Amino acid sequence: MKHLLVCLASFLALGTLHAQEPADYVNPFIGTTNFGTCNPGAVCPNGMMSVVPFNVMGSEDNKYDKDARWWSTPYDYTNSFFTGFAHVNLSGVGCPELGSLLLMPTTGKLDVDYRNYGSKYEKENATPGYYTISLTKYNILAEATATPRTGLSRFTFPKGESNILLNLGEGLTNETGAFMRRVSDCEVEGMKVLGTFCYNPQAVFPIYFVMRINKAPKATGYWKKQRPMQGVEAEWDKDQGKYKLYTQYNKDIAGDDIGAWFSFDTEEGEQIEVAMGVSFVSIENARENLDKEQSGRHFAAIHQEARQRWNDDLGRIKVEGGTKDQKTVFYTGLYHALIHPNILQDINGEYPQMEGDKILTTKGNRYTVFSLWDTYRNLHQLMTLVYPERQMDMINTMLDMYREHGWLPKWELYGRETLTMEGDPSLPVIVDTWMKGLRDFDINLAYEAMYKSATLPGKENLMRPDNDDYTKLGYVPLREQYDNSVSHALEYYIADYSLYTLAKALDKKEDAKLFYKRSMGYKNYYCKEYGTLRPILPDGKFYSPFDPKQGENFEPSPGFHEGNAWNYTYYVPHDIKGLAKLMGGKKPFVDKLQMIFDKGYYDPANEPDIAYPYLFSYFKGEEWRTQKLIKELLAKYFTTQPNGIPGNDDAGTMSTWAIFSMMGFYPDCPGVPEYTLTTPTFDKITIKLDPKYYGKDQLVIETMNPDSESDYIKTIKLGDKECGYRINHNDLIKAGSLQFWKK
Amino acid sequence: MKHLLVCLASFLALGTLHAQEPADYVNPFIGTTNFGTCNPGAVCPNGMMSVVPFNVMGSEDNKYDKDARWWSTPYDYTNSFFTGFAHVNLSGVGCPELGSLLLMPTTGKLDVDYRNYGSKYEKENATPGYYTISLTKYNILAEATATPRTGLSRFTFPKGESNILLNLGEGLTNETGAFMRRVSDCEVEGMKVLGTFCYNPQAVFPIYFVMRINKAPKATGYWKKQRPMQGVEAEWDKDQGKYKLYTQYNKDIAGDDIGAWFSFDTEEGEQIEVAMGVSFVSIENARENLDKEQSGRHFAAIHQEARQRWNDDLGRIKVEGGTKDQKTVFYTGLYHALIHPNILQDINGEYPQMEGDKILTTKGNRYTVFSLWDTYRNLHQLMTLVYPERQMDMINTMLDMYREHGWLPKWELYGRETLTMEGDPSLPVIVDTWMKGLRDFDINLAYEAMYKSATLPGKENLMRPDNDDYTKLGYVPLREQYDNSVSHALEYYIADYSLYTLAKALDKKEDAKLFYKRSMGYKNYYCKEYGTLRPILPDGKFYSPFDPKQGENFEPSPGFHEGNAWNYTYYVPHDIKGLAKLMGGKKPFVDKLQMIFDKGYYDPANEPDIAYPYLFSYFKGEEWRTQKLIKELLAKYFTTQPNGIPGNDDAGTMSTWAIFSMMGFYPDCPGVPEYTLTTPTFDKITIKLDPKYYGKDQLVIETMNPDSESDYIKTIKLGDKECGYRINHNDLIKAGSLQFWKK
Prior knowledge:
The structure is a homodimer. Chain A is α+β, with helices and mostly antiparallel strands. The first copy, chain A, has a domain at about 1-310: Beta-galactosidase, Chain A, domain 5. Chain A is about 30% helix and about 25% strand. Chain A is built from 22 helices and 35 strands. In chain A, the strands form 8 sheets. Chain A has a 9-stranded antiparallel sheet. An 8-stranded antiparallel sheet of chain A has the order 1-2-3-4-9-16-13-14, with no helix packed on it. Chain A has a 6-stranded mixed sheet with strand order 18-30-31-35-32-33. Chain A is globular, with a radius of gyration of 26 Å. The relative contact order of chain A is 0.10. The model of chain A is unreliable at about 1-15 (pLDDT under 50). Chains A, B: Keywords: Calcium, Hydrolase, Signal.
């Protein structure tokens, strides 16, 4: 058996040299600068744990420093000062959170001030589930890998005095405060307070951990930054305002800025492994997660397991043709799409109640990190198609949140509703899933939950605080200069259109009528003078003076959130034809949309307008514009470089835009089970389907004349029948194949 | 049964109005200013818990503020800004420590900043085991009582919005950092880091607590002082640098400055009780202590029990005659002498290992807070005589510390050796106890421990770091300007004299010879030129320039610690006759000693010279000086006023000086079982003896002609035999009576 394992390990190791596995095409450095806010750390697909190099503090050379500006990622490619591995991180988000439990190796005299102990580095590399870096200051090789709920770091030290530091005081989160207890010379356990995501002061939650080192230190202790004292008091306490080293105290410690240190005499090349288990329930669960997921195995075995998980998941889509770079963009995008939502429950099934203090137990996977204003647009559609078992658990998670908290999620983070961004994004996600035939959830409860947020008065309505205006007027008037009122309403419209769709499907005729009518309320905002949507004042008049361009580059804009009128005007994906009619028909619609691209009003870095390129394809004869733009946008904004994502990846949403676009179909209207088609990047795309959900095991998308030099589509066949540029998901599955003929 | 209890309660309540109980003579406000560092809080005899008004922070009107100067007590009588009840405090010490878990009632809008929520007060009163205060800002009556390990506070609120705050951020201790967990709406549990006593940075230890309120709040949450942010970061976080209120987060919280708040709607006169259990082992033990000691009983029952404990203990000495004020001084002194050492073990017997991380279990009482440089002089002698069962447990505690840590204690604090002050003070305590016939401990182990600290080289010697010089030269030379070298050596001499005494008793002749010789080394320091002890330089010459007065009022002095040559020159209590010989005989000895008093060189506020007045009585015909001085010193320095203790009470040492002095006998040489006699303050003193230790149940001291107006003694009878001015403890016990005839 042992021999077999050795053979297997050799095979896997060799495998990385020879056959190209999907993981070989992933470049985790893509999206790690240019505000992509991805990171190159070690993580498993949809895993709770990620072990991420933290390089955004402690050096004046940092271009991006967490304390010097709004900063939301533990790592930026352009920085160069490593201050440890952060455990549990967010990928591709726009607010600072998590990124704590910082683990750092050093050599020489113990120094626990990160401004001193941080190091420049070289030989940085990353593959799915693995990260490595060489610390030039110390000549230490640091490596990291992960299981779903635990991290494992391996440090290769030079000969001499070496140290391992666990810093609980710093992190990306704006919360502070930690508690730690020593279990043995080699093990500490504790908790840290996290939260205040997007400066929501009450969205606070604890993380619990157990950290274990595989070598007994020659000395170990704690540190704590002491509060500054004034006057005579300061004279007596030599540690005031400094990091005090606790050399003889090994019981419970707590404070804003504490840490643990471990010192060793190491031989040249000696490797020490540090395992970290976490839980959002308890220290006990963190330990069980660690014990069960690592089972005392060493680094190589954990790394290989993580890599295998990625190959299994990435391998659900096989692409042929295209360049190596295109494959890299594609599989890295898929990698990013498989990070959030991530599992929340411990290995024993326990998880923290949504917005409550209970500890509950789940049967399936309980997910967290629902950045729904982003991900409802395409990521859940990708899950539904390729990872339906996960999408099913995500839907059931959302319904359980309703059971526990009374609300479906908006922007859920580790059991807290952070209420970030606006709208009612769970509705399209659930309806989209249902309409695509994934129905293993309580649709009546789901309808109850959706109906609640659609109809409850604003004061009691967590999802739609301006619901009184909305239901009475059909729109939300601008009551404060920067109240994002139009953006709010646009989200309600699409949510209500989903609700209409479901009501109709459930034969709730009156409801269907009501919500359809509401979903059409967007027309109130249409201003003929500018040809855009425009904020409306409480007296019913349009807001003046009005500039449709105001709001570029995240500057504030009356009525619009993170965008301007151009970025939002076409965001009525459920009624593109109706919008065109308002605008005077196809030509003005198409001309204006083309103008948006031509004049650079299109913002590829944020969600509201990301489906714009697909809207041309609603109109016969204009589909080429979609095909042209998608090719151009992919080439320009999605590259293999660290800046190869146009802005925040938004928990995988930007990456998913590229994934669908490269496969030749895109779900441009959340809640409507349809795709708009465009020229695929690859010659052949084989998607493994789950027969349990889809009755068959694959979907094949092919370019039938790949050698054609044209970028444009001549004809498309769905199964054996020619089809148009928008197809239904269920028809696609039924057909099992989609064939493109280029011109 | 219920009826009986009601009757009993009424009887006890009435009892306080009629018959004078010992507790009626206690005025807990004595020693609460003038640096007495006593406090008027509620405590049980030798109890772990004390509930003490905290009035030394938050107001610019504070004459004494913990953050503005060296300040070592939670309460000063002259301050007037109440910021809560502190749980577990030190009494009569000179370094800041403990005084945390601050419990405060307020009314109106929640404000968790102590600078705002503190209140002026009136109607302050205290009796043993009970304290009450009326908060004028809020019209709240606050009361406190205690069991040995738990506190109970009762707040009587006006009608309206009321709050209870638990502040874990502030306290007397210079350590910070706490952790808290919510058990229910009415209960929180947690820990706080304490320590750094006398600015020893490694003497750190945890306190665990469970706090329970007997009414469910209408709202409850936490607070935490947020760390200040700079620049743009500060703009985003509205709580930065402020006390942030957590209104929706109720899981684990940790930080430097955290608290819990509870809000209520109260009726006029509504009483809410808050119980606090503590432990130095664990939260679980804190809860068990609370459950078992309070058993859900209400305030009146707990208060009566505490009072009864005091009456039982104080009642072991009955004094007759004397003024009411003298009785007040006496019983308040006895009250102060019965606060430290206090029990450390939980109700299940568990306690933290001395200087280690283990949790151990004791059979007897495990004591802590051994301020031995102070208490070895008289407090343990009082325990031996009147509370021998406690002294026995204290000795066994000291030996267990040796078993656990390898050293007898010097200044032990909750399991940590703080190494405060100098010398080897356990030796006289143990030998004194043994010589007085309390021998229920392992004397061989004790000898081993004493021998170790007397003989181990300085480098390895925790008690005697300068043992190399001492054993080689017979004295400790001055190697640094303020190294306290003479003070060190003087402590070693008396310790070695004790060791000589024991070696002799154990028939260890060679050892006896060695340690006797060492104990006489003080003679090296005697300088004929000045007639005082004088520091010696490493080259063997006396230190120059020399001023025997340098060191008054706690200014630094070469060679002497907290005093000058005058305060130390007569501190060779084991060889008074030898010292007199050095000085040229009785007359120069007496004249110089009298001069010390006449010129005001005597410092009644610190330990080194407190036995000086008794030294006259070694010389026939000079005993009147002792009698005169003791009467004068008692009258001048020990009064019923808040400033009625001359300086730090030093964990009861100053109070014990008054107690013995008022009873007419004083143990002026620790380790030698003898008393020097003086005129008793009272006509009759009846001391209950424990027959288990002394074979009889009382000792009676009488002034046979109390109506005499003379302050001077004519004759004394020990039993039925006339005796001199120094008597042996064992003779006194044997006789059972001591009779004074005044002139």
